[in-house]
Structure formats: C-alpha cells, structure tokens
Amino acid sequence: MTKKRRGSKKSKKLTDKNKADNTRGSGLLTSKENRTVLFKFAISEKLDSGFMFKDMKYSEYKDFCNFVSITVNKGLSITEVNKLLLRTEGPHGPKNEEIFNDCKRKMFHLGKDRTKFRIHGYYNSDDYFVICRIDPKHVYKY
Fold first, then answer.
1. Beta bridge partners of residue 46, listed in sequence order
2. Where are the domains of the chain?
C-alpha cells in the first residue's frame, strides 16, 4: 500500500508576466472585438496614496460594491461599460496621459451620472481595467 503525500503537487505558474503591458492603447477600446469582451478589473499595482480602500468610509465602500454590481456582476462588455460610466468631460476628455508608478499610462475615469464616486485606471494588454485610484469624493484633479 502506497501513501499519498499531501502538498507534493507542483504548483503551476499562471502566467509568465511580471508587469502590466500598456502597449494596447485606448484606441482599441471601441473596436468591434471589445463589443463582446467582458469588462473585468484588477488591482495589480499599489493604489495611489490617498485613494485606497483604507481611506474610504463605509458608505464609500458601498459605492465601490455598487460599481462592481453594475459592471462585472451584470456581465457588461467594455463598450457597454464605457457608454454607461466613462467620464468624457474635463480638460483632457475621456483619457489623460500620466505617469503612474513610473510608467506612462492612458488613464480613464469611470463614474455614474452626477455622483461624485469615481474609479481611475487604465486598460492593460489583457483587457483588464487596472484600478489605480478609488476616488469616492471626486477630489483628484488631472
């Protein structure tokens, strides 16, 4: 009789990527392909100081949960999320090029109607919206 050893399975590496790639620019967000690509988000880098979960009040945390409910939980595509939440007003339009964690990014901010709650981030090469700041009071200025 042979005993099975627990924990002896070799863990599989999920990916060989160490950093988010920003080579697929914002021009692809409205492509035909993205009409069917589901919106998904990630937090793959340190959030901007002052715009983290720890800086939020309970009611603001609920606003973030609502953001998840109306996007990921509803199975919306990138195009549908952009139509619903992409903020187009402002000095730079819907996107702003900025340096974030030492990389040049095309940042977008998402928010519902006239509410102050905003999520700032960029799309990486895997079509994830990478959250960089959670701005529940809309205090971040470009």
1. none
2. 37-135
What mean pLDDT is predicted for residues 119-131? 93
Long-range contacts formed by 20-23: CB under 8 A, 24+ apart = 20/44, 20/45, 20/124, 20/125, 20/128, 20/130, 21/124, 21/125, 21/126, 22/103, 22/104, 22/105, 22/106, 22/122, 22/124, 22/125, 23/125
- CA angle in degrees (0–180, nearest 5) for 83-27-90: 55
Rg (CA), the chain: 18
pLDDT digits over 97-110, tens only?
Answer: 888 888 898 889 89
Q: Which residues pair with 139 in a beta bridge?
A: none
Residue 7 region, left (φ>0) first, then alpha (ψ -120 to 50), else beta?
left
